[in-house]
What does this fold into?
Amino acid sequence: MSIDAGTKSIGSEFSGEIPPELRGGEGDVPPGIGPYELAWRRLRRNRVALAFGGLFLLMVVLCLLAPVYAHDIAHTTPAAENITGTVKVGGKNEYIVSLIGIPIGPTWHSHYFLGADANGRDVAVRLLYGGRNSLQIGFVATFITMIMATILGIAAGYFRGLTDGVISRGLDVIWAFPAVLLGVALGVTLAVSGIDIGPIKISGNSLFVPAFIVGFVTIPYVAKPIRAQVLQMRDREFVDVARQQGLSHARIMFGEILPNVASTIIVFIPLILANAILLEAALSFLGAGVQPPNPSWGTMISDGVAEIPAAIHLTLVPGIMLVLTVLGINVFGDGVRDALDPKAKVRV
Amino acid sequence: MLRSPRFVILAALAVVVVVVVSACGSSSSSSSSASSSSSSSASGATPSVTLLMGTAPDSLDPQDEYTTQSSEVGWITWLSLLSYAHSSSPIAGGSLIPALATSLPTITDNGKTYTFTLRKGLVFSNGTPVVASDFTYTVERALKIPWGGAGEFVGANVVGANAYSAGKASTISGITTNNATGQIVIHLVAPYGAFENVIAFPELGLVPAGTPFKNEPNDPPPGVGPYMVTNVVPNVSFDVVKNPRWAAQAIPGIPAGHVNVDVKIASNTSSEFESVLNNSADFADWADTPPPSLLPQIQSQASDRFSKVPFNSTYYIFLNTKTAPFNNQLARQAVVTAINQEAFSRLGSGFLIPGCYFLPPGMIGHPTAPCPYGDPTAGGNIAKAKALVTQSGLAGTPVTVWSETRQPRQEWMTYYTSVLNQIGFKATQKVIADATYFPTIGNLKLNPQTGFADWNQDFPNPIDFYLLVTAAGISPTNNENFGQVNDPHINTTSAQLGTTPTSQLNSIASQWQALDEYTAKKAYVAVFGYQTFPKFTSSRINYGASIFSPQYGWDYTSFALNG
It folds into this structure.
């Protein structure tokens, strides 16, 4: 069963009273404490989750510092090519790319610290810029997913009937395709034509294209659980009271119901973010994500595959960065989930 | 997908595992193909060998195919009236021989009438007898499907072909046949020196009358030839097996072949060359370039079964002469001046021979004069190119560079994009899948600005290359003149030189040289080299006996196992 089965509504209408299922055996909870304060206390006690959260933050900071590294240490840019040039290693001038095309390996100096790629570009610089692009796409895609899924999920669950039918079938159609397959199909098409919908015009090379694709294909995975939760919630007393007070549908959906599904949304954010980063890497690996010469960890792994016999670091280094980042955010996300829902069975 | 957080963690870990496994997993995974081939050999049946193609053939229907991979299969499967000698020698291998015709044609009417006689007793691979009118039917089918070269080579030359193609006639008036005598007479609109080479195209390989007028790549029609195509799994594999009816026909100069060939489409060039290196496949696609990282291993471990062979080919960057910035000669000159052919060569594993002329060195008419915009081996002159762009007033113009994904073509265009940005343009790269690249940029509506292009000769006549830079080569779809070059001097001169028969090209070599120098001065294309190709086999193949045809690459009829 998908994660929505294990992610229960925990907002409980913000009555100020902690529902029994949230107490998680903590009989010493001070009276009047809110569920989020309680979750924060639990999270602070989860050192593993905090450590991995720190790891993720470290990756983000490293990637944000890419321009500083490129400008002040490596003295190059991520797109600067130097195929026929040389670099001094151990007092000797060595080709950055050999006469038959083999790129130089790690020099462990400021220039080409992690070596060069086939086009003579500094791998360390591209690694950090690639991380920026991967994270940027991950964040934008997560934003798109969460916004769209929240709106669609709440609307479907609240209105039911025809609205629910149309939205749910639409989500089913997206869900029916394997995410990577759908992503590749969209990616290949949009890489050529870009996005041109009325006033919205986005070039096929823009990072927003893979962000949009990743965000789009993930919508059902969040929208469906939210819809299910709203379906249960729409007949609760506090919604009836809101209706009787004459509040508009929009006010009820986003003023009354949304705060009660907020914790579910919060639990989903790190999972979707991790998934978005991985999906972007997969799409870029398959040539349907970030377009060259822009780097991303996926494109770097893809570019390095042909060089594996002579330069395995070209695939290994971005692969490790990807793993550490996704691992960091996932374990932290798991900790957040445990904090919000201590009865959850899945723990790291 | 989002089953639990653990799933995502496992997926992340899988990335590392995939990377590591892909580095060492290919040899074990593909070794079964070699063993299966060996077993068929041991059982006494015709042995099989495995040939890998880096790119799937565009079609396995003779009247639709037009790429190197499909022509390589076509020329031994669907013979036309003429064919080429089975030889690795550039001269002998470029010589025409009679195939389904009894002899080379009789040419009369000042080069406008070609008369052939069909051999007697020919049968298609399905047993249907061949008659002279099958030739007309085949040409009609090529025009209707249509084959990519149909308009340029047949429509423009054969009387009534364009009218038939446009639906204004029920048959091609310029072709008459007599099934009783086997005589085939073809009337041309005007003399065309390479028309015998046109007749030898595998795309005009005979199929039985009644074969549907639609592309049938997955169920290819029968042909006359030593081989036939079976078991087509699109984009995955197909078999090229010996035609059991060929032995009785015994056409001189066309061998029967020794083995069946299992063709598999390789997922990438690394695995392709690794498979041949470790003997789990027998032949690598000659049109692919070995990855730089594998080349030292290939040269050290397989030097007795690997060599670089020349082939008349030109690798170039097309420049759209109808659209800014390359409708300006200074902008085009800037590109030619800026590119560093040494960089292209290194990205291509050292397989490129530098040069600046459109006609390759092995082709009659290749100029001997120095390059107009500097020595191609001296490295690009970025400063001079930048000044040219400034002078043109087009600095900052957005440019989209089109490229395939295939190594090293993508890397070449990544480098080229970087050069364009260095000299003052605002360039971005657009990478699309190999299988759809040429149809995409060949769509005139797309109007691509610049990008990768190459041409491997169809036949040993410069007119074959000049179709790519003349008005005749411009078409709404399957366009091959990607830069839409339409220069009256090139159009008229090439048309005039094109009337000289291929066998008499030496008499007009200097005129072709002058035309090619003119093309280079105008910088209509930015040539970045002439490719040499890898002739690479497994150790169980008789390497010396394997013929590399100067027309079609691998000659399957020459494949044989050692011992």
Observations:
- The first helix of chain B runs from residue 5 to 24.
- Chain B touches chain A through 55 residues (CB under 8 Å).
- The mean pLDDT of chain B is 90.
- Residues 257 and 557 of chain B are 4 Å apart (CA to CA).
